[in-house]
Amino acid sequence: MRAVIAEDSLLLRIGVVKVLEAAGFEMCAQVADAEGLLAAVEEHRPDIAVVDVRMPPGFTDEGVRAALVIRRQYPRTAVLLLSQYVEERYAADLLATHTAGVGYLLKQRVADVEEFTEAVRQVAAGGTALDPQVVAQLLVRRHSGPLDRLTPREREVLELMAGGRSNSGIAAELVVSESAVAKHINGIFTKLDLPKADADHRRVLAVLRFLGVATA
Questions:
Q1: 208 pLDDT above the threshold of 90
Q2: Would the pTM count as exceeding 0.90?
Q3: Beta bridge partners of 83
Q4: DSSP label at 107?
Q5: Got the DSSP string for 146-208?
Q6: Which residues fall within 8 angstroms of residue 191, CB to CB, at 6 or more apart?
Q7: pLDDT tens-digit profile of 171-180?
Q8: Which of 76, 84, 85, 81 lies closest to 93 in space, CA to CA?
């Protein structure tokens, strides 16, 4: 897979590049600001862009705004945001517009090389990866309604889905069979009014509904 990284901290940028190269990614470009990021994505059309939330010149939301431009203009390029702290509004902004190929992790996760590279692969493949602390913050946004229809076990399954667990990972955590997990997930889709449709990723939409993030 091909990747670009936008991070103003030289040490962190070098570290992420080395980690991803060791994991088999082709690093097309490494830049320090949003303008350079957009130029790199236009030139290389990578599978994924790893983007710092706050970058020059204002160190506010430059990375988020660039990520939204990328997802709008280059939908085949996934985006993984990195942040020093949980900034729930930025995660919600990105997730509210796009339901696949996005991720939001705290920078401390880079230290766990295996976990970080797996998250990058997952997002690049069209999935989502949310830092557990981000999930915890977004849970505050949940609204009542269809979620009240879920059984306690279905809520457990959905919460693990929100943390990025696969069916096999959920089965191992709850000590049940994968077929039981699949049955619970189908029940969740039904109770959240998510009919099967090729245009939508029901697993992602269910997680977003659980987190209280409105989708376009």
A1: no
A2: no
A3: 106
A4: G
A5: GGGGS-HHHHHHHHHHHTT--HHHHHHHHT--HHHHHHHHHHHHHHTT----TTS-HHHHHHH
A6: 146, 149, 150, 154
A7: 999 999 999 9
A8: 81
